[in-house]
Design a protein that fits this description.
By secondary structure, this protein is mainly β. Helix content is 7%, strand content 48%. It has 1 helix and 10 strands, in the order E-E-H-E-E-E-E-E-E-E-E. The strands form 2 sheets. It has an 8-stranded antiparallel β-sheet.
Length: 124
C-alpha cells in the first residue's frame, strides 16, 4: 500500500509519516467487535477533530483489503464495519492528511491490537 521506489535496485519507501508518529509519541488501540471498528488513542497528542484512515490488509488476498474512514466519536474514532475474524490482518492507521502513520497486526480471532510507529517511539 505504501509508495515504493526503486533506487539502484534497492526498494525504498517514505518513512516520514513513521518518523512523525514516533516524534509525536503516538500509539493507539484498535478494537474490532460486533460490526464496529474503533480506534482509541493510547499515547501522544492526536488531533481529535480530524478523521483517520485505516487500512486492513489481508495477508494473502489483496482483493479482500479494506480501506476505512473513521470519524471522531466518543473517546476515539469509529466506523460501522464487519471485519472477518478468520485470519490475521496487517493494520495501518494514518492521519487524514498522511502526516503520520501507525502499524500493527490484528491476529486471527482477536478483537484488539496495539498500533505504534514502525520506527520505535510510541511508548505506552
Amino acid at each position: 500500500a505504501d509508495e515504493v521506489r526503486r533506487v539502484s535496485q534497492i526498494q525504498t519507501t517514505d518513512l516520514g509519516p513513521d518518523e512523525a508518529a514516533a516524534e509525536l509519541g503516538l500509539s493507539a488501540v484498535l478494537r474490532v467487535e460486533d460490526g464496529i471498528v474503533e480506534v482509541l488513542p493510547a499515547t501522544g497528542a492526536f488531533a481529535r477533530t480530524q478523521e483517520l484512515q485505516l487500512l486492513l490488509e489481508h495477508p494473502t488476498r489483496q482483493a479482500e483489503d479494506m480501506q476505512l474512514r473513521l470519524v471522531p466519536e466518543g473517546p476515539g474514532w469509529r466506523v460501522q464495519q464487519a471485519v472477518d475474524p478468520d485470519h490475521d490482518w496487517v493494520v495501518q492507521l494514518r492521519a487524514a492528511d498522511g502526516g503520520w502513520r501507525l502499524h500493527g497486526r490484528l491476529p486471527k480471532q482477536q478483537h484488539a491490537a496495539r498500533l505504534a510507529p514502525l520506527l520505535g517511539g510510541g511508548t505506552g
